[in-house]
Amino acid sequence: MPLKAKPQNLSSTEKALKILLAFSPHNNEMGTLEISKKLGIHKSTVSRLLHLLTANDFLYQNPVSKKYMLGRAIAEMGNVVIKSLNTAIVGIAQPHLNELSNLVGESVALEVLSGTTVLLSGHVEGKSHIRFSFQPGEQVPINVAAGAKAILAYCEEPFVDLCIKKKFHRFTANTIVSKKRFKQVLEEVKMTGIAHDNGERYEDSHAIGTPIFNHEGTPVAAVVVAGPAFRMTPKFQAELIAPLKKTAAEISRRLFY
Question: With helix as H, strand as E and coil as C, how does 84-135 read?
């Protein structure tokens, strides 16, 4: 995030941060004078801070061009952040799941992609009569789960093929067991950003889901609202789309999407 104060009013720490931010988003090599002109900071100050940042591995100086780029310490810090996001997605999502459930009055779940499977990793029980209790860690059948469809709709086809290698099990008359039809459904989901489970696993329950993306734009999870079929009418599901997408977008932002 750009620092707001004018260069002449910045402390040395703020100027150092401004220098590091100047390499975003492409990390192109820059020399002392180039950075000085770009940031409006005196050349001697830039030179001093460049040496300090290089000495601590926040920057790397090319021995041939003498120009600078982001260094090892920044890469290591970035890896720490990404790893923490991957393991903390449930904690990151939970407040948003709570808010959505309170808003719509139905049960809300977080389905997370794990390898080639999708797991129920978080949930909030709805406050309405007849609630759905999810089992954290439960593997969901990809061909019926709204969240799984929402995630796979944005994945590359070879990965999708890997995920659906096993035979689809039929749960109800509405279950999709044809892999050709399943792929057609994924194309439809990709067009709208919304996936459905209309009695495909349990005849008397419906669900609607939308994907969550990480910093690379990769679908890693989905937010799902589920409830009894008599409440999850087409009209009600249409009303759920906006708050559902808003919740997924908020969680995606927390993952730096």
Answer: HHHHCHHHHHHHHHHHHHHHHCCEEEEEEEECCEEEEEEEECCCCCCCCCCC
Domain count, the chain: 2
CB 35 within 8 A of CB 44: no
246: CB partners within 8 A, 6+ apart: none
Q: Are residues 32 and 128 in the same domain?
A: no
**What are the pLDDT digits (tens) for 147-193?**
999 999 999 999 999 999 989 999 999 999 999 999 999 999 999 99
pLDDT value at residue 4: 53
> Where among 34, 51, 74 does a domain terminate?
74
| Total-model pTM | 0.75
By three-state DSSP, how is residue 257 classified? coil
Considering the domain architecture, whether residues 90 and 54 belong to the same structural domain is answered as: no
Asked whether residue 57 falls in the same domain as residue 162, the answer is no
Q: What angle do CA 222, 105, 145 make, to 5 degrees?
A: 30
Question: 87: domain CATH number?
Answer: 3.30.450.40
Contact 111, 118 (CB under 8 A): yes
- Structure tokens that stand for 153 in this block: 């709709």
The size of the chain, in residues, is 257
Residue 99 buriedness (CB in 10 A; 0-12 / 13-18 / 19+): middle
- Looking at the structure, tell me whether residues 119 and 53 fall in a common domain: no
